[in-house]
């Protein structure tokens, strides 16, 4: 039938999608409130910074409204646009991206220095930079992470509350729901985002408080066992042993600033995570899902580690993009994060591939190349980068998550005496 689209065996006309969006608006408003009040947990008089695509203006306006309702002293919005970004990369030489303009450094550093919280609205075309030299976005990312020092330190050490949350743009929605017109695809993606963020019910904030409590059992198990290493095996060829630091801590769900202010860095989130000993990683690991990085798709890739560092790698799609990540600095070839996520999560069970790391990483156990987390080391907030590195924590100008959680993934915990205990069996917690 002309004008009718099929998505997951549900048929929507364009008119039905428009009416559906009207019905979703109360939930989208509640979602914005969730991001403001639970995500960054705005305090009275605080500066709030929202970075977002221009196509997400409707949702950004809701965030600004909710921020002021929550007591924000001022809200700054920083816009971005896929089309403008692509034009910039097409027409500007690589050397330009190696330095952050002084006004941008001053903007981000001064906002962080004044105690701002940061909301990053995730929404982009997964192939926005297809065909662009990956060295250009890699240089831009490295410059921002190394030259905006106060801003970067504030995020890495959780000094400034921050939250990444998604909102649809049409080009992204078409990837998730191929073959659909823009209006239907965006409607379906809004439905999916609200569902996996637990924002489609009557009281999303209470739902998140309950969700946060579910992390405690897994965290208690891991922190009590205090494994010396984890071994990963799967039928796709993954056989990787990851050492853990002597004073590592597992965390997940909400985070806290050094002063004890709670916030949720990711909405949604399903992971418990720690930072490994970046000198003790050996073996090979294969990806389970595609990685979208700076608008480039990296798929069906593997990496071999020796003494913590990547010594060999390949990818069926996006090898150059993967190489650009690994070449950012020495720490980009080492691991900064180990995250455990059961296959029994709303995102995995949705059956959707979101083509966005915020979502896809929460459907699968994952690792991250690059910088580790101070919160994942006992006393880490009080240590310098040099001290953290000496303790085995990775230091880098990047942090890139990639998904490795297959349905048959087995993870074995190994204690200091060599005793083994199953942690994951067939892609889920051994006690599930």
Chain-wise SSE layout:
Elements: E1 4-7, E2 10-13, H1 14-40, E3 47-53, H2 57-69, E4 74-80, H3 82-91, H4 102-113, E5 117-122, H5 135-147, H6 149-156, E6 162-166, H7 170-176, H8 182-196, H9 204-213, H10 215-225, E7 229-233, E8 239-244, E9 251-252, E10 255-256, E11 262-263, E12 266-267, E13 272-274, E14 276-286, E15 291-293, E16 296-306, E17 309-317, H11 319-326, E18 335-340, H12 346-350, H13 357-360, E19 366-370, H14 385-390, E20 399-403, E21 410-414, E22 420-425, E23 428-429
Parallel strand pairs: 3-4, 3-5, 5-6, 6-12
Antiparallel strand pairs: 1-2, 7-8, 7-21, 8-14, 9-13, 10-11, 13-18, 14-16, 15-16, 16-17, 18-19, 19-20, 21-22, 22-23
**What amount of the residues lies in strands?**
25-35%
**Tally of distinct domains:** 2
Number of strands: 23
* Gap from first CA to last CA: 45 Å
Using only C-alpha atoms, the radius of gyration works out to 21 Å
Q: Mean of residue pLDDT?
A: 94
Helices, by number, come to 14
What CATH calls the topology of the largest domain is: Thermophilic metalloprotease-like
The largest pleated sheet is described as: 9 strands, antiparallel
Folded structure, characterized:
The chain has 2 domains: 203 residues, Thermophilic metalloprotease-like (3-Layer(aba) Sandwich); 197 residues, no CATH class. It has 14 helices and 23 strands. It starts with a strand and ends with a strand. The N terminus is likely disordered.
In short:
It contains 14 helices and 23 strands. It has 432 residues and is α+β, with helices and mostly antiparallel strands. It has two domains: 4-206, 3-Layer(aba) Sandwich (Thermophilic metalloprotease-like), CATH 3.40.1830.10; 215-250 and 269-429, no CATH class.
């Amino acid at each position: 039938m002309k004008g009718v689209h099929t998505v997951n065996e549900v048929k929507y006309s364009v008119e039905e999608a428009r009416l559906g969006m009207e019905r979703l608006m109360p939930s989208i408003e509640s979602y914005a409130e969730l991001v403001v009040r639970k995500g960054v947990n705005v305090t009275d008089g605080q500066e709030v910074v929202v970075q977002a695509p221009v196509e997400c203006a409707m949702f950004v306006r809701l965030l600004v409204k909710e921020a002021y309702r929550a007591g924000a002293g001022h809200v700054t919005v920083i816009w971005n646009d896929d089309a403008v970004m692509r034009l910039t990369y097409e027409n500007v030489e690589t050397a330009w991206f190696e330095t952050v303009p002084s006004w941008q450094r001053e903007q981000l550093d001064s906002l962080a220095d004044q105690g701002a919280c940061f909301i990053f609205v995730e929404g982009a075309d997964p192939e926005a930079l297809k065909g662009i030299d990956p060295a250009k976005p890699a240089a831009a990312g490295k410059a921002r992470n190394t030259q905006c020092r106060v801003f970067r330190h504030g995020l890495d050490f959780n000094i400034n509350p921050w939250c990444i949350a998604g909102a649809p743009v049409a080009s992204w929605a078409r990837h998730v729901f191929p073959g659909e017109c823009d209006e239907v695809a965006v409607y379906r993606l809004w439905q999916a985002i609200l569902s996996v963020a637990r924002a489609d019910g009557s009281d999303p904030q209470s739902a998140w408080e309950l969700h946060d409590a579910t992390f405690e059992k897994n965290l208690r198990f891991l922190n009590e066992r205090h494994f010396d290493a984890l071994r990963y095996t799967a039928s796709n060829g993954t056989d990787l042993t990851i050492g853990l630091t002597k004073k590592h801590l597992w965390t997940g769900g909400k985070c806290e600033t050094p002063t004890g202010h709670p916030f949720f860095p990711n909405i949604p989130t399903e992971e418990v995570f720690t930072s490994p000993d970046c000198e003790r990683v050996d073996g090979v690991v294969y990806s389970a899902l595609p990685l979208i990085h700076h608008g480039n798709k990296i798929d069906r890739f593997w990496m071999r580690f020796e003494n913590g560092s990547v010594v060999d790698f390949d990818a069926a799609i996006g090898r150059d993009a993967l190489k650009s990540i690994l070449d950012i600095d020495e720490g980009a070839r080492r691991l900064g994060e180990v995250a455990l996520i059961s296959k029994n999560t709303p995102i995995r069970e949705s059956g959707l591939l979101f083509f966005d790391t915020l979502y896809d990483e929460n459907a699968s156990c994952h690792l991250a190349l690059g910088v580790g987390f101070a919160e994942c080391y006992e006393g880490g907030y009080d240590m310098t980068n040099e001290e953290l590195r000496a303790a085995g924590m990775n230091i880098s100008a990047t942090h890139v998550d990639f998904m490795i959680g297959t349905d048959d993934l087995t993870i074995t915990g190994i204690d200091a005496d060599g005793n083994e205990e199953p942690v994951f069996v067939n892609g889920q917690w051994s006690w599930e």
